[in-house]
Amino acid sequence: MRTTTVHVHPAYQVGEVNRRIFGSFVEHMGRCVYTGIFEPNHADADSRGFRRDVAALVKELGITVLRYPGGNFVSNYRWEDGVGPLEERPRNLDFAWRSVEPNTVGANEFLAWCRRMGIEPMLAVNLGTRGLNEAMEFLQYVNGDTDTRLPQLRRSHGWEDPWNVETWCLGNEMDGPWQMGHKTPDEYARTVTEVANAFHRFDDKLSLIACGSSSRSMPTFGRWERVVVDAAFDNLDMVSAHAYYEPIDDDVASFACCAEDMERYIRDVAATLDHVAAMHHSDRRLKISFDEWNVWYQSRFGGENSIGMEHAPHLIEDTYSVLDAMVVGSLLITLLRHTDRIGVACQAQLVNVIAPIRTEEGGRAWRQTIFHPFALMSRHARGVVLDTRCEGPAISTQRWGGADQVWTVATWDAENHDLVVFLVNRDLHERARVRIDLRAFGDCKVVECLALDDEDIAAVNTADRPNRVEPRNATCDITSGILTFDANPASWNCLRLKTSSNEDN
Q1: Domains of the chain listed by start with CATH number
Q2: Which pLDDT tens digit goes with each residue over 405-425?
Q3: 332-342 residues labelled b (16+ CB within 10 A) or e (exposed)
Q4: pTM for the complete prediction?
Q5: Catalytic one of 101, 134, 173, 260
Q6: CA dist., res. 505 & res. 500, Å (int)
Q7: Which of 305, 319, 363, 425 makes the best surface tag, with the fewest CB within 10 Å?
Q8: Is 292 part of the annotated catalytic residue set?
């Protein structure tokens, strides 16, 4: 067993914990909406058709932001088909996921559910098969408060007050050839400039997100961001980034360390945004909306044309293991490490579709393994993010080269004297002895020490065994300001401490 020393100091601050990092994503895809959050015939459905058992798990998960309605779905979506009397709403074919969309849930139903749940909505507009006019009309319908046609239409549908949605995604993955209406960098730059300008004419306080390249591996990556941001710089707040991870060619060691890729991705996008700011002689620092990220076993997915044209098909319902939970925890650590540049982040998706929550139609709902690191980090990450520094061994990987065995971040709530260290041992075979230097915080006491691990890193949770994998109490020791903790292989860990009340320490 090798040793890693983690240095934590209250002076080394990255920035305030951005609570919007703990966002998620609801798309009209597979069973995320229908038989996911919404199932009117379920025994535990509320009066509006939304499942209470799922809502309870969503609250426990600690979601702060929800992106809607897509994703690929949005690029051929007609928002007006999802509003008004249910009996008048058309059934449409969604080209993205080759599914039948009944429009039973639309913008108002989703926004009302978010309000009841205390979650901030984040809406996307269709810039694939539609454009400026339709986006402006959607904005007016949702947020308008004037005595004009579209706010009046919303009122006639039973929603008197504007929703006042603050954050808007201007399209989705517009450089992807799989996207309905995908565009060149110059084509999208022209579109997003027009839409962003119009949206800020309506309300200059809106937060607007332009599509970045669909992934770091796209041939358009880098140039796309530069061209788009250069064109619309004055009216943008964020640029999107998307990343999904799985073992490639059975290279599990590289998969365990895929946070290395996310780390580089964030730095590359931030560098491009800052380059454009310099070109504009501006001190503005645009942020990154990491609004799709997760573990997704895409190699198991047969592609869109493998999907039968039906309503709410079982689509990419990955069952997650202990190893997957460790990876998800490491990606959340990475997002927190960059709290100063991440404006919002959304794990894709919320229910059933590569999700922390699974359901049976008409039956049970349960937590997947990846549920636990997200819920605990959302619950306990408060105050400021501290820049932890590690001295210890590295793991050799094929894709990323040397990667630290132990991956960490810490948050400190000085007002309440709460210090939390989140860490993963990314080694699949060897335990890690972790020494955390806490001397700068005075006397520290351990409040809780939790570990998510298992002798079988392939272990999963199912409807029949929903608690097969869950956090367990672990042990650690503090002597002379040094906390010692042994992290099991492929483990995610949460160490909660009370610091001295003397802030001068």
Answers
A1: 2-10+384-498 (2.60.40.1180), 18-380 (3.20.20.80)
A2: 999 999 999 999 999 999 999
A3: bbbbbbbbebb
A4: 0.97
A5: 173
A6: 8
A7: 305
A8: yes
